Amino acid sequence: MCAASLGAESFADFKTAQAKSFAKYADPRDNGFDAYLKEQFKEYKAYGGTALYEEPKPKNIEATKYEPVAALGPKVFITLPSSQEVVQEKKPLISEEKQESVLDFYGTTLAFHINDKLKKANFSPQTQEGIAAFFACLAASEYKSLLMDINAAKEELGLSDWGVYLLVTKLSQKAYEKEDAANLFAWFIFNKLGYNAKVGLANKHIVLMLHSQKEIYDTPNFRFGDKKFYVISQYAKANINSVYTYEKSYPNATKALDLSLKKLPNLKEKQMSKTLRFTQEGKLFEFGYVYNQNMLDFMATYPQADYETYFNAPLDAKSYASLAQGLKKEIDGKNASVALNFVLGFVQNAFIYEVDLEQFGREKVMFAQETLFYDKSDCEDRSVLFAILVKELFGVGVIGVKYKNHMATALHIPLQGESINVAGKKFVIADPTYINASVGQSMPKYRSQRPESFIIIK
User: How many CB atoms lie within 10 A of CB 425?
Assistant: First the structure.
């Protein structure tokens, strides 16, 4: 029997009665870890989440007078991706024998086999003993087929670590109605998948923590030695002060959660369309593009990752192809200086400026895909979008330039203007938030400021 059958028995009675059946687990790691979970938990104090900016971003932006740029550099001819590069997503199949655990994962239907014994685990009593009992129940169950299903879905959908995190948490919530049991189940599965995950107790409820080597901003975290473990479910919240838990990690579960999104997941298509507009020298320009609503829903779940994550995440292939086709009509055959400034003007003027606190009630750096979708955005959102467009359209080297309360970009190009030197290379400032400014112009208030850091775009 599992912990669900404890009833009025004490944990000591339960342990004695079940000693023989739990003497050995299929995974030898579980024997030692089972015993370790019964040792005394300790209290660990929470660290508040780190803020992205030292100072609030300006609520209003500056604008300058538009001045046509001199036609310099070679003529530009944009190469559009071939139809073969814009790949149609695969549709994962549902096997007939797994209909009992069907999950909608951002428009894609997946199915899993969850052994009945796994579902019998129960967090009772709501103490350290209950955690150990829950683990013992799961460890004695047949869970390998579920791990195989999860890994198969990961490969089928091309999921990053964040995709796996969402998949496991959704699956846990599907298997267990109570949040504490779902968190314990997710903890067990994460460890079996090799992720360094912990659980602890706060006010008799389960707190799930995952290790990340990079900062996850505005998220409570706990430190065990030189490692930080983040309570991702509490992103942008501050209601955890301490947790009672253990120090050692599950054997060989050393993988840190990596929020980078170098490749987009292969989600089912829910195609939508939108038109972006801006005016330059009295002329109206319109650019239509298509997007996958399921992809936007996936991106909306992200906690606040580091800037490298956003600057290095691609646009959806169909979104880029449709937008690039419209931009190509305006810049093909133009000199490089004119073409670059046209794209800069597009990003400066096609969106309304608004800081995240006003739009979302919290700091939220957007992926380029999200910036295209939302009518409003602020400095780092536009910088991410402009950087990706410049890199893909022109093959130009670009970096993010972060100030205390502002973000811009800089281009590795042979044009005159305000510039910075990074790693022995000259980069010319291009500010997607400074309305009507040309490449080589930065906002007056930042001309004398030294940037805090630079974001490398690969």
Answer: 12
The Cα–Cα gap between 240 and 409 comes to 37
Peptide bond preceding 220 in cis form (omega within 30 of 0)? no
How many CB atoms sit inside 10 A of residue 159's CB?
22
Among residues 191, 180, 98, the alpha carbon closest in space to that of 139 is found at 191
Structure tokens at 401: 């330039």
Q: Residue 433 — very low, low, confident or very high, per pLDDT cuts 50/70/90?
A: very high
Q: Does domain 276-456 have CATH number 1.10.10?
A: no
Long-range Cβ contact pairs of 412-419 (< 8 A, separation 24 or more): 413/73, 413/336, 413/340, 413/439, 414/73, 415/72, 415/73, 415/337, 415/439, 415/440, 416/440, 417/441, 418/442, 418/447
Residue with tokens 């937008």: 323
Euclidean distance between CA atoms 86 and 216, whole angstroms: 32
- Using DSSP's 3-state secondary structure scheme, residue 110 falls into strand
Residue 179: Cβ within 10 Å count: 15
Q: Strand, helix or coil at 439?
A: coil
Query: Tokens 């006003």 — which residue?
Result: 358
- All CATH 3.10.620 domain ranges in the chain, comma separated: 276-456
The reported pTM is: 0.91
Q: Report in angstroms the alpha-carbon separations of 230 from 200, 216, 303.
A: 12, 7, 11
Determine the pLDDT at residue 86: 57
Q: In the predicted model, what is the mean pLDDT of residues 177-183?
A: 96
Separation CA 191–CA 211 (nearest Å) = 11
